[in-house]
Design goal:
Keywords: Chaperone, Cytoplasm, Isomerase, Rotamase
Distance between the termini: 13 Å
InterPro entries: PPIase_dom_sf, PPIase_FKBP_dom
Protein name: Peptidyl-prolyl cis-trans isomerase
Order of helices and strands: EEEHEEEEEE
Radius of gyration: 18 Å
CATH architecture of the largest domain: Roll
Pfam family, one: FKBP_C
Number of helices: 1
Helix content: under 10%
Function: Also involved in hydrogenase metallocenter assembly, probably by participating in the nickel insertion step. This function in hydrogenase biosynthesis requires chaperone activity and the presence of the metal-binding domain, but not PPIase activity.
Oligomer: single chain
Strand content: 35-45%
Length: about 140
C-alpha cells in the first residue's frame, strides 16, 4: 500500500456529474506527486494512499474536499485596468491573477459595465463534486 511521502505515479480521468471530462492523463505522461504533500486535492490524495501498484479505483470527491463550495462572497467588482491584459479579456473567459508571492489563481469576468468588471474568484470547479477513475501505475521512494 502507498504511504505518505512516497511518489505515486497515476493515470486518471476526472469527470463531473454530467460525465464531462475536466482533466485526464490520457495521451500524456502519468501524473507524479508526493502522497500527503498537498499537491493534489485531498480526496484524490486519500484514494491513492489506500492503493497498491496495479490497483484501479473510482472515487467521488465532494466539492468541499475538492475546490470548495461555490462562494458568492468571492465575486468582486473592480476597474478593468486592474485586470492583467484587460484588452484581451472577454466576459466569461478565465484568466489568472498573480499575487505578491507569485501564486496564480483563476478568475473569470462575469460582466463589464462602464469600465467596472464583475469578477468571480471562485475556482472553476468550486461547488462541483468530482469523480476520478484512478490507476496507480507506479511508485517511487
Amino acid at each position: 500500500m502507498t504511504s505518505y511521502g512516497k511518489t505515486a505515479v497515476v493515470e486518471y480521468v476526472g469527470r463531473l456529474d454530467d460525465g464531462t471530462v475536466f482533466d485526464s492523463t490520457e495521451g500524456i505522461e502519468p501524473l507524479e506527486f508526493v502522497v500527503g504533500s498537498g499537491t493534489v486535492i485531498h480526496g484524490f490524495d486519500e484514494a491513492v494512499l489506500h492503493m497498491n501498484v496495479g490497483d484501479r479505483t473510482t472515487v467521488v470527491v465532494p466539492a468541499r474536499e475538492a475546490y470548495g463550495e461555490y462562494d458568492e462572497g468571492r465575486i468582486e467588482h473592480g476597474p478593468m485596468y486592474a485586470i492583467p491584459n484587460a484588452k484581451d479579456t472577454e466576459v466569461g473567459k478565465l484568466f489568472y491573477f498573480v499575487d505578491e508571492g507569485d501564486m496564480r489563481f483563476p478568475a473569470r469576468v462575469l460582466e463589464v459595465n462602464e469600465g467596472i468588471a464583475t469578477i468571480d474568484f471562485n475556482h472553476p470547479l468550486a461547488g462541483k463534486d468530482l469523480t476520478f477513475d484512478i490507476a496507480l501505475v507506479g511508485e517511487k521512494g
